[in-house]
Design a protein that fits this description.
The chain is α/β, with parallel strands linked by helices. The protein contains nine helices and seven strands. It has a seven-stranded mixed beta sheet. A hairpin with a 3-residue loop joins strand 6 and strand 7. Helix 1 packs antiparallel against helix 2 and helix 5 packs across helix 6. It is globular and about 45 Å long.
Length: about 260
C-alpha cells in the first residue's frame, strides 16, 4: 500500500517562496549580484539540509526536556492583543535553528558573555534563551508579544533545569511590545530572528539610540534573516561589524 505524504499548505509555501525572493532581491539591491547568488545558494542548501537541522533541534529539546519547536497549528494571536501593538507588523513564530544560533554566538564581538545581558526580541518559546543561558550570559531576557508563547517560554526556562546553572540563575520573559521595551543599562546583546516588520524595528533602533546616548556602553545587535537591515544601516549609533549570507551583526560606536 502506498502512503501519500500530505501536501504542504499552499499558503505557507507561497509565504516561504515570497520571503526567499524578497531576501534575494534585497541583497541584489544592497550588496550586489554576487552576494545575492551566495545568499540563494545558502538558502537552498539550508532547505536541503533541513531534516538534519530539525533533528538537531529535536535533540536539544530532548536533552533539556523542553518544547521549543513549531507545531503544525500554532494558535492565532488574539485580535485584541494585536490591536494593542504600536505597529501591527509582527511575524508568525518560527524557532531559530540551533546550529545557526550557535554560530552567531561564536561570532559575537564580546570579550566574556558573563559581562553581558542577552535580550531576544520576539523570543517565542524561548529556545535562544536556553542556549544563551547555557553559553554563559550574565542575564538572559526574552521579550514576546504573544502571551501564549511568552508563557510557554517561561515554562521551558523553569522546567529544563538549565537556568540553575546559568551565571545569573534566572531567565526572565517579558510579555510586551518590543517597540516599547526599555533596554537594560549594562552591556547588552540583542538578538532578532526577523520577528517583526520595518516599523517596529525602527522603533527598536530609536530606543537603542536613546539608551546609548544616555548610557554609552558596548551594545551588539545580531540579526538573523535580516529582512529589514536597511533600518540598522540608517542608525547613527550602530555600525555593521559582520555580515554573511544569513545574518548581520551591528555594534555600538559609543562604547
Amino acid at each position: 500500500m502506498t502512503v501519500k505524504t500530505p501536501p504542504i499548505a499552499p499558503a505557507r509555501s507561497f509565504r516561504k517562496a515570497r520571503r526567499f525572493l524578497h531576501a534575494v532581491r534585497r541583497t541584489v539591491r544592497t550588496r550586489g549580484t554576487v552576494a545575492a547568488i551566495r545568499l540563494a545558494g545558502a538558502l537552498i542548501a539550508e532547505i536541503l539540509l533541513r531534516p538534519v537541522t530539525r533533528r538537531q533541534d529535536r535533540l536539544m529539546d530532548q536533552r533539556l526536556g523542553t518544547g521549543t519547536g513549531r507545531s503544525s497549528a500554532e494558535p492565532v494571536l488574539d485580535p485584541a492583543v494585536v490591536a494593542s501593538a504600536q505597529h501591527r507588523d509582527s511575524v508568525a513564530y518560527s524557532p531559530t535553528p540551533v546550529h545557526q544560533f550557535r554560530k552567531i554566538l561564536r561570532s559575537l564581538p564580546i570579550p566574556t558573555p558573563s559581562a553581558f545581558t542577552f535580550v531576544d526580541l520576539g523570543c517565542g518559546k524561548g529556545r535562544t534563551l536556553l542556549l544563551a543561558a547555557e553559553y554563559g550570559f550574565g542575564r538572559v531576557v526574552g521579550v514576546e508579544f504573544d502571551p501564549t508563547l511568552a508563557e510557554t517560554a517561561r515554562q521551558n526556562a523553569a522546567g529544563c533545569g538549565l537556568v540553575a546553572r546559568s551565571t545569573a540563575g534566572v531567565v526572565e520573559v517579558v510579555c510586551g511590545d518590543a517597540a516599547r521595551y526599555e533596554f537594560p543599562l549594562e552591556p547588552t546583546v540583542v538578538f532578532l530572528f526577523n520577528p517583526f516588520g520595518e516599523d517596529t524595528l525602527r522603533a527598536v533602533v530609536d530606543q537603542i539610540e536613546q539608551t546609548l546616548a544616555l548610557w554609552p556602553r558596548l551594545f551588539v545587535v545580531a540579526y538573523f534573516n535580516p529582512m529589514h537591515e536597511e533600518v540598522l544601516e540608517g542608525s547613527t549609533t550602530l555600525r555593521a561589524t559582520m555580515r554573511n549570507s544569513r545574518w548581520c551583526i551591528y555594534t555600538s560606536m559609543t562604547a
